[in-house]
UniProtKB/TrEMBL annotation:
GO terms for molecular function: oxidoreductase activity. Its cofactor is FMN. It comes from the Bacteria. Residues 11-100 form the Nitroreductase domain. It comes from Marinilabilia salmonicolor. This is Nitroreductase.
Protein backbone atom coordinates (compact mmCIF):
# COMPACT_ATOMS: atom_id res chain seq x y z
CA UNK A 1 0.00 0.00 0.00
CA UNK A 2 1.32 3.41 -0.95
CA UNK A 3 0.41 6.34 1.29
CA UNK A 4 3.58 8.45 1.30
CA UNK A 5 2.96 11.80 -0.40
CA UNK A 6 6.01 11.58 -2.67
CA UNK A 7 5.26 8.03 -3.84
CA UNK A 8 1.59 8.89 -4.39
CA UNK A 9 2.68 11.82 -6.55
CA UNK A 10 4.73 9.42 -8.68
CA UNK A 11 1.75 7.08 -9.03
CA UNK A 12 -0.41 10.03 -10.05
CA UNK A 13 1.97 10.52 -12.98
CA UNK A 14 1.13 7.00 -14.15
CA UNK A 15 -2.61 7.77 -14.06
CA UNK A 16 -3.13 11.55 -14.08
CA UNK A 17 -6.82 11.83 -13.26
CA UNK A 18 -8.12 14.36 -10.76
CA UNK A 19 -10.35 11.91 -8.91
CA UNK A 20 -7.41 9.49 -8.52
CA UNK A 21 -5.36 12.19 -6.77
CA UNK A 22 -8.00 12.45 -4.05
CA UNK A 23 -7.41 8.93 -2.72
CA UNK A 24 -5.29 8.93 0.46
CA UNK A 25 -3.83 5.51 -0.36
CA UNK A 26 -3.27 3.32 -3.39
CA UNK A 27 -2.80 -0.42 -3.29
CA UNK A 28 -0.56 -1.49 -6.17
CA UNK A 29 -1.46 -5.04 -7.05
CA UNK A 30 1.32 -6.83 -8.86
CA UNK A 31 1.81 -10.21 -10.41
CA UNK A 32 4.97 -12.27 -10.05
CA UNK A 33 5.66 -14.07 -13.30
CA UNK A 34 8.41 -16.17 -11.71
CA UNK A 35 6.17 -17.78 -9.08
CA UNK A 36 2.77 -17.75 -10.81
CA UNK A 37 1.19 -21.09 -11.55
CA UNK A 38 1.69 -22.26 -15.13
CA UNK A 39 -0.66 -24.74 -16.75
CA UNK A 40 1.15 -28.00 -17.38
CA UNK A 41 0.17 -28.83 -20.94
CA UNK A 42 0.88 -25.45 -22.55
CA UNK A 43 2.63 -23.33 -19.91
CA UNK A 44 -0.09 -20.66 -19.74
CA UNK A 45 0.92 -18.11 -17.10
CA UNK A 46 -1.95 -17.44 -14.66
CA UNK A 47 -0.53 -14.22 -13.20
CA UNK A 48 -3.46 -12.13 -14.51
CA UNK A 49 -5.97 -14.55 -13.03
CA UNK A 50 -4.22 -14.47 -9.65
CA UNK A 51 -4.16 -10.67 -9.73
CA UNK A 52 -7.86 -10.49 -10.60
CA UNK A 53 -8.81 -12.83 -7.75
CA UNK A 54 -6.72 -10.88 -5.24
CA UNK A 55 -8.07 -7.53 -6.44
CA UNK A 56 -11.65 -8.74 -6.24
CA UNK A 57 -11.20 -9.97 -2.68
CA UNK A 58 -9.61 -6.69 -1.63
CA UNK A 59 -12.44 -4.62 -3.14
CA UNK A 60 -15.07 -6.79 -1.47
CA UNK A 61 -13.40 -6.45 1.93
CA UNK A 62 -12.98 -2.70 1.46
CA UNK A 63 -16.69 -2.35 0.68
CA UNK A 64 -17.51 -4.38 3.77
CA UNK A 65 -15.46 -1.86 5.79
CA UNK A 66 -17.25 1.10 4.17
CA UNK A 67 -14.30 2.05 1.97
CA UNK A 68 -14.40 2.96 -1.70
CA UNK A 69 -12.15 1.47 -4.36
CA UNK A 70 -11.89 1.42 -8.13
CA UNK A 71 -9.87 -0.88 -10.37
CA UNK A 72 -7.47 1.23 -12.42
CA UNK A 73 -5.82 -0.72 -15.23
CA UNK A 74 -5.38 2.04 -17.83
CA UNK A 75 -2.11 3.42 -16.44
CA UNK A 76 1.50 3.64 -17.59
CA UNK A 77 3.18 0.57 -16.05
CA UNK A 78 6.72 1.84 -16.65
CA UNK A 79 6.05 4.80 -14.35
CA UNK A 80 4.81 2.50 -11.59
CA UNK A 81 7.81 0.19 -12.03
CA UNK A 82 10.12 3.18 -11.70
CA UNK A 83 8.28 4.70 -8.73
CA UNK A 84 8.38 1.44 -6.77
CA UNK A 85 11.68 0.08 -8.13
CA UNK A 86 10.04 -3.17 -9.18
CA UNK A 87 12.18 -5.96 -10.65
CA UNK A 88 11.48 -7.19 -14.19
CA UNK A 89 9.45 -10.28 -13.23
CA UNK A 90 7.01 -8.21 -11.12
CA UNK A 91 4.23 -6.67 -13.19
CA UNK A 92 2.06 -3.87 -11.81
CA UNK A 93 -1.41 -4.86 -12.99
CA UNK A 94 -3.92 -2.82 -10.97
CA UNK A 95 -3.80 0.48 -9.13
CA UNK A 96 -6.48 0.36 -6.47
CA UNK A 97 -7.14 3.74 -4.84
CA UNK A 98 -8.80 3.28 -1.47
CA UNK A 99 -10.47 5.71 0.88
CA UNK A 100 -13.75 7.06 2.15
CA UNK A 101 -16.11 7.56 -0.80
CA UNK A 102 -17.48 10.99 -1.53
CA UNK A 103 -21.15 11.54 -2.14
CA UNK A 104 -21.27 11.94 -5.88
CA UNK A 105 -23.67 11.41 -8.70
CA UNK A 106 -22.44 8.50 -10.76
CA UNK A 107 -23.40 8.70 -14.43
CA UNK A 108 -25.13 5.64 -15.89
CA UNK A 109 -22.82 3.22 -17.63
CA UNK A 110 -23.41 1.88 -21.09
CA UNK A 111 -23.10 -1.88 -20.85
CA UNK A 112 -23.38 -4.62 -23.42
CA UNK A 113 -26.34 -6.91 -22.83
CA UNK A 114 -25.47 -10.16 -21.06
CA UNK A 115 -26.55 -12.11 -24.14
CA UNK A 116 -23.68 -10.47 -26.08
CA UNK A 117 -21.15 -11.64 -23.49
CA UNK A 118 -22.27 -15.10 -22.35
CA UNK A 119 -23.14 -18.16 -24.38
CA UNK A 120 -24.73 -21.30 -22.94
CA UNK A 121 -24.34 -24.58 -24.78
CA UNK A 122 -27.66 -25.91 -25.93
CA UNK A 123 -29.58 -22.66 -25.41
Amino acid sequence: MVNEAEKLKELHEAYPREWFRKAPQVIVICGDHETAWKRGNDGKDHTDIDVAIATDHITLRAAELGLGTCWVCNFEPSKVVKALSLPGHIEPAVLLPIGRPEEAEIPPKKRKPLTDLVRFNGY
